[in-house]
Amino acid sequence: MDKREFMQAHLPAVGSVRGSREHFAPSNIALCKYWGKRDAQLNLPVNASLSVSLGHLGTRTRVEPLDAPQDSVYLNGRLQGADSRFAQRVSAFIDLFRMGQPEQMFRVDTDNNIPTAAGLASSASGFAALTRAMDEAYGLGMSDTELSVIARLGSGSACRSLFEGFVEWQMGVREDGLDSHAIPVDKPWPGLCVGLVKVDEREKRVDSRAGMQRTKETAHLYQSWPLQAGADLAKLHNALDERDFGLLGAVAEQNALSMHATMIASWPPLLYWQPDTVAAMHRVWALREEGLALYFTMDAGPNLKLLFESASQAAVEAAFPGLEVIKPFGD
Ligand code: 2P0
User: Fold this and answer.
1) Average pLDDT of span 90-101
2) How far is ligand 1, taken at its centre, from the CA of residue 66, in Å?
């Protein structure tokens, strides 16, 4: 089944477009990562994942019906060429909504307030915000669960950005992916901090989509990943239930390093780390040796995301000058 067939089967009848709509969706950081797909067409994952949404940091997207031969796609105020990868991904996603009216074009304004140097993915918040805006533009009135399923078709991790706080993406077992969507995990953690360590803000040469595909196809080590992820997810739920920060941090860090181990074991090898990445890891480990409750996670890139609590903030900022600190649940 491809995306169009899925939408034909499940999208409510699309009526006429209602007008312009605007929505915000938060960025998210996974503590148990999504890495590998069992269906690359529908972005169905090999494993369940768990993330924390980043509050006010994310993407605001506005869609406006347009009387023109093609969509106009703006990113942070700049018109993107129709043949750019960004515009093509946005238009292909909108195609899923306008199937009954292929001639209906849109102006799309995507504004990210994610710090440019943060090394945070914006595709998750971008597709989540676009999904909400399109749902409203056509007056479809879909539930959050349905919207999460559809956002997943744009980018897997986007299904988690429909919700605030901790969020679990349930992998599901159905072939059509109707049961593969995120759910909110209502266990707020005031004082939890995410610190963004900038190592390199350039676009990576191998994106997540290609990276996870390569890993799955070429790394024997990948066979152990679903087991690791399943065990980590269970431990993370325990950590949230018990408010056990040491457990949360340790599981998140080991999960990220396990994911990177599978990447490194791919062929050609995929090593996103740079010398400064490794230096930052050693700094975290040294501080932990000294008693600071500090951990990190990393995505498919060289930047670290530090995990700590408010009580440690001053010490962490002293060790990592210029750190951007986000408190997903406030203080
Ligand atoms: C995550 N990542 O769980 C993992 C960790 C990157 C490393 O979700 O192909 O951009 O669009 O489904 O969602 C990034 O992958 O990939 C990602 P597609 P996506 O946050």
Assistant:
1) 92
2) 31
